[in-house]
Amino acid sequence: MGINKKSVPMREQPPEQRKHNFLEVPLGYSKEEATLEAQRCLQCPTHPCVDGCPVHINIPAFILKIRQNKLQEAIDIIHQSNLLPAITGRVCPQEDQCQAVCIMGNVGDPISIGRLERYVADWELENRKKGEVKIPEKLPPKNKKVAIIGSGPAGLSCAADLAKMGYDVTIFEGFHKTGGVLTYGIPEFRLPKWIVEEEKKFFEKLGVKFETDVLVGRTITIKELMENGFEAVFIGTGAGLPRFMHIPGENLDGIYSANEFLTRVNLMKAYKFPEYDTPIKIGKRVAVIGGGNVAMDAARTALRLGAEHVFLVYRRSRKEMPAREEEIAHAEEEGIEFMLLTNPVRYIGDEKGFVKQAECIKMKLGEEDASGRRRPIPIEGSEFKLDVDQVIVAIGTTPNPIIAKTTEGLKTGRHGVIEVDENMQTSVKGVFAGGDIVTGAATVITAMGAGRKAAASIDKYLRGEL
Ligand SMILES: Cc1cc2nc3c(=O)[nH]c(=O)nc-3n(C[C@H](O)[C@H](O)[C@H](O)COP(=O)(O)OP(=O)(O)OC[C@H]3O[C@@H](n4cnc5c(N)ncnc54)[C@H](O)[C@@H]3O)c2cc1C
């Protein structure tokens, strides 16, 4: 019998049902489904998937363990490189990374590595509920304190590696909840919050300490942290400052940045009304501006909050959309109307100052720009007005400048990203950085990879080898 060229599909909540709730959309593999999918892996000797993974998980090895139904061994293999597999198994752009280079992709569907990773991670989370937690081994205490600023994937990964090496690690987080974008950005229907909470407990068991409601740069500075005995600092503060288009009417009521909208819904639980009475506008006709993951999340969230019609206004075509294919397809299935090759030029308000229309212009595609995508060009005279009562702007984010402004000698580059050398060290000795604060808005797994790389450098630095 030959190998099945088609991957085992994952069951999902049907669109008509899921667009009215915040429950997770993909439902995960059963044991039988996971075993079948694992059997498709050729266990090829070149394993390009491992290099395709930014944290180099030994993918063929953990897939082999799934086949053998040795799930504890499978999770142990994953944990060697990644302590957040229930998260990355759900949100990683595997189609551009490990799965993009899977050799099964030459003859059929690549192995569904992300789904298998999620299967193993969910098995382990279930075991934790029964009190069965296996914590990775730790080296004896080194009696050296390291401060991590920001509790997103970059900070968490850096903290975990350092804790395993025996360092005394404290994470300082500006918000009242930890997790970064995993908590305040990615919605419940893609990444249930209990998973992020559960992963946090794992870090606590490793000895990592968390101090929330500490905004470094305001509550305390990096200099003060170092005066308080922290011998090295890692900055993993992400890129949470929303960008706007600076077009007329953008300050009207009812126009949100996606960041603010999603933070109110996720972190401040606006979706749990009336249990949580978080102020938020629930639009009936909502325009979301942008074509990335953030735009898809905002559009699908607005729909679930009760919008009658959600438009996704994007200036290029579907092909250029930066969002994951799965998220684009899910949004389409749920009835989000894609207004492609369209861009807003101004917003028009009512007498009370609330947005009532978005004036848009049609676009065409020109030559490729620096991003390698074809440049959108406005078509003169093609303006039209769209009736809306809410607009959510999701056109990108940049780093918050608070730390750069309050840390003497800290060098920053374009859009305020922190500059680092090949060891992730900044221009200030003993201060390292990684994740979105260095690269600009990127992905969970690249932030994790950066956190891990910085942890290795911090260890060298504290041993006097850097
Ligand atoms: C809505 C949305 C959807 C996304 N979807 C995906 C996806 O599907 N797949 C994917 O791979 N990536 C996705 N991303 C991108 C991904 O989440 C980020 O690239 C990743 O979280 C970056 O990790 P980080 O640790 O660098 O920063 P963050 O996750 O942003 O964490 C930074 C943390 O630092 C804290 N902080 C900031 N300043 C300070 C300060 N001065 N003092 C103390 N704490 C501070 C913040 O509150 C935050 O908790 C998405 C992003 C968004 C916004």
Question: What key phrases describe this protein's structure?
Answer:
16 strands; globular; single chain; 17 helices; binds flavin-adenine dinucleotide; alpha/beta; five-stranded parallel beta sheet; 466 residues
Strand content: 15-25%
For the largest beta-sheet, the strand count, sense and barrel status come to: 5 strands, parallel
Task: Flag low-confidence runs.
Answer: none
Helix fraction?
25-40%
Radius of gyration: 23 Å
| Small molecules bound in the structure, each named once | flavin-adenine dinucleotide
User: What is the count of helical runs?
Assistant: 17
Would you tell me the structural class of the helices and strands? alpha/beta
β-strand number: 16
Distance between the termini: 55 Å
**Kindly state the mean pLDDT as a whole number?**
94
Strand order of the largest sheet: 3-2-1-4-16
Q: Which secondary structure elements does this structure contain, and how are they paired or packed?
A:
Elements: H1 15-18, H2 31-39, H3 48-52, H4 59-67, H5 71-81, H6 85-91, H7 113-129, E1 145-149, H8 153-164, E2 168-172, H9 181-184, H10 193-205, E3 209-211, H11 222-227, E4 230-235, E5 241-242, E6 255-257, H12 258-266, E7 285-289, H13 293-305, E8 309-313, H14 325-333, E9 337-339, E10 342-349, E11 355-368, E12 374-378, E13 384-387, E14 390-393, E15 397-398, H15 402-406, E16 431-433, H16 436-439, H17 444-462
The structure holds flavin-adenine dinucleotide.
The site of flavin-adenine dinucleotide (FAD) has 42 residues, from helix 8, helix 13, helix 15, helix 16 and helix 17.
